[in-house]
């Protein structure tokens, strides 16, 4: 059965019978669903910019503002070391972490579309509360509502895109989520750059404009069809077949629909999907998809740069406007990298992108650490040449991350889980991802203060470890039908010993 046992059955031979055309209905569905990434991206971009705005700091974090003005009196690495300030950022991710378990239930019982709608509503309410905040408590509560929105959206959108996509282009389609995230970051940085000029209230506009992607996601979600996989899982077989035929642009979907039904039968037998994730046959998906990749995606150090790019560049002596402008450069690199990855991931495969970009990222982190060790310290003014070199290094690092761990960190886990554990598995992915996102957000500035340039050597070491993890444990999944991914483990030189004899 597809997604069930590992022996070679008839289902494993159906993939070549799948047919599809690229229809307008399919394109519309994927673009609207992918807009959910803009919620995540807009917040990533806007929160770092707002926390470097003087008017925001004066109102809510006056101690940080005063310390910022006295930068000659302390090591420049420590200028923004304030746990309440970082709690403003990380509270969203702790909330998303918790809410993803509720999202799993909604996604499995009510469908992927329902979770997308719930996420957009919660994000909208959080944006309104943040924009009208009069004290830190209102800020934190608003961030929690935003976190619930991201928890639901990130749980449902990657699944939706993977399930709607034909196997041959699943990589590119799934990466619409990452592209939307990157565009959200880019737009947020443009907005921060302009609102920083609107003194006393510009930060409110930056935070409040988050209602725009939330509204787009909600209105689009109302028009979205449910995925055939989810409809089959809910027992709506006739509706599922109609949607599958409409999405694929052909009535000849017997083979693919048979795989969905087989996978559904396996799913119906599972009463406790989270417990099922721990079974031996699901050990590869648990270790690689639910734990390894989502944790490692954050431990590259990339989100630290995105969160605090304005803060980093300001600490490097670029000034407030220049720091936001530098953040536009990094978010532009993310968009470019996403387009590169979308164009080639289904041709070159997932492993090549992981490993090639990983080797680059190690070199860039080491170069960054060495440069800061030699040139950056108490009250020093960075030479112009060194400052430009750092911006180029960060740009290249973002370009490498944006075509590898960024998009593939969401794509690969969404491919690995069989239908019976897919919703639970994706919840684990989001939970682990947001836990490490929050951890990095809360610890990065204090680590930067105490470890200084050494923090980037730590990230370089972690990237080496995760590259080895990919090299030894991840099989290539390009163009493999999503309901037949499970057969790869029986052929893998390491995992075949783990799953052998499982049922």
- Classify the beta-strand content into a percent band: under 5%
End-to-end span in angstroms? 10 Å
What's the shape?
globular
Number of strands: 0
Characterize the main sheet: none
Secondary-structure element order, as H and E? HHHHHHHHHHHHHHHHHHHHHHHH
Low-confidence stretches: 1-12
Mean pLDDT: 84
The number of helical segments is 24
Secondary-structure-based class equals mainly alpha
Radius of gyration: 23 Å
The proportion of residues forming helix, as a percent range, comes to: over 70%
Structure, explained:
This protein is an all-alpha fold. The chain is 74% helix and 0% strand. The chain contains 24 helices and no strands. The protein has helices at 24-34, 36-50, 54-60, 62-69, 83-109, 112-131, 136-164, 170-174, 176-195, 202-208, 211-223, 228-233, 237-248, 254-268, 273-276, 283-299, 302-315, 320-348, 350-375, 384-402, 405-416, 419-451, 454-473, 495-499. It is globular and about 70 Å long. It starts with 23 loop residues before the first helix and ends with a helix.
């Amino acid at each position: 059965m597809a997604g069930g046992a590992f022996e070679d059955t008839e289902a494993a031979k159906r993939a070549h019978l799948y047919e599809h055309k690229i229809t307008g209905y399919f394109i519309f569905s994927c673009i609207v669903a992918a807009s959910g990434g803009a919620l995540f991206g807009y917040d990533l971009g806007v929160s770092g910019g707002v926390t470097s705005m003087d008017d925001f700091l004066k109102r809510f974090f006056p101690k940080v503002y005063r310390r910022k003005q006295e930068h000659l009196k302390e090591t420049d690495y420590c200028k923004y070391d304030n746990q309440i300030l970082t709690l403003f950022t990380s509270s969203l991710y702790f909330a998303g972490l918790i809410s993803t378990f509720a999202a799993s239930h909604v996604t499995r019982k009510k469908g992927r579309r329902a979770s997308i709608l719930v996420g957009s509503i919660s994000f909208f309410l959080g944006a309104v509360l943040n924009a009208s905040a009069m004290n830190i408590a209102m800020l934190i509560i608003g961030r929690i509502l935003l976190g619930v929105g991201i928890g639901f959206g990130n749980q449902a959108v990657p699944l939706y895109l993977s399930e709607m996509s034909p196997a041959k282009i699943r990589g590119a389609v799934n990466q619409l989520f990452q592209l939307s995230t990157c565009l959200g970051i880019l737009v947020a940085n443009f907005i921060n750059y302009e609102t920083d000029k609107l003194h006393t209230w510009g930060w409110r506009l930056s935070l409040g404009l988050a209602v725009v992607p939330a509204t787009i996601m909600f209105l689009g979600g109302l028009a979205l069809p449910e995925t055939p996989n989810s409809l089959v899982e809910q027992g709506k077989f006739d509706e599922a077949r109609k949607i599958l035929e409409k999405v694929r642009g052909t009535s000849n979907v017997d083979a693919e629909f048979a795989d969905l039904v087989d996978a559904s039968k396996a799913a119906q037998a599972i009463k406790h999907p989270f417990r099922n994730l721990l079974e031996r046959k699901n050990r590869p998906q648990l270790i690689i998809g639910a734990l390894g990749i989502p944790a490692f995606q954050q431990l590259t150090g990339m989100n630290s740069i995105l969160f605090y790019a304005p803060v980093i560049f300001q600490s490097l002596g670029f000034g407030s406007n220049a720091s936001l402008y530098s953040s536009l450069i990094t978010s532009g690199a993310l968009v470019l990298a996403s387009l590169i990855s979308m164009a080639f991931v289904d041709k070159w495969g997932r492993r090549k992108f992981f490993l090639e970009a990983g080797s680059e990222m190690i070199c860039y982190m080491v170069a960054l650490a060495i440069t800061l060790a030699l040139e950056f310290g108490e009250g020093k003014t960075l030479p112009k040449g060194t400052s430009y070199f750092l911006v180029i290094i960060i740009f290249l690092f973002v370009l490498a991350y944006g075509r590898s761990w960024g998009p593939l960190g969401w794509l690969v886990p969404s491919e690995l889980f069989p239908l019976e554990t897919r919703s639970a598995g994706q919840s684990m992915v989001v939970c682990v991802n947001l836990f490490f996102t929050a951890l990095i957000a809360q610890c990065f500035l204090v680590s930067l203060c105490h470890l200084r340039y050494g923090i980037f050597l730590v990230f370089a070491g972690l990237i080496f470890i995760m590259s080895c993890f990919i090299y030894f444990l991840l099989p290539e999944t390009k163009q493999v039908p999503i309901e037949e991914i499970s057969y790869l483990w029986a052929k893998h030189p390491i995992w075949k010993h783990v799953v052998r004899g499982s049922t």
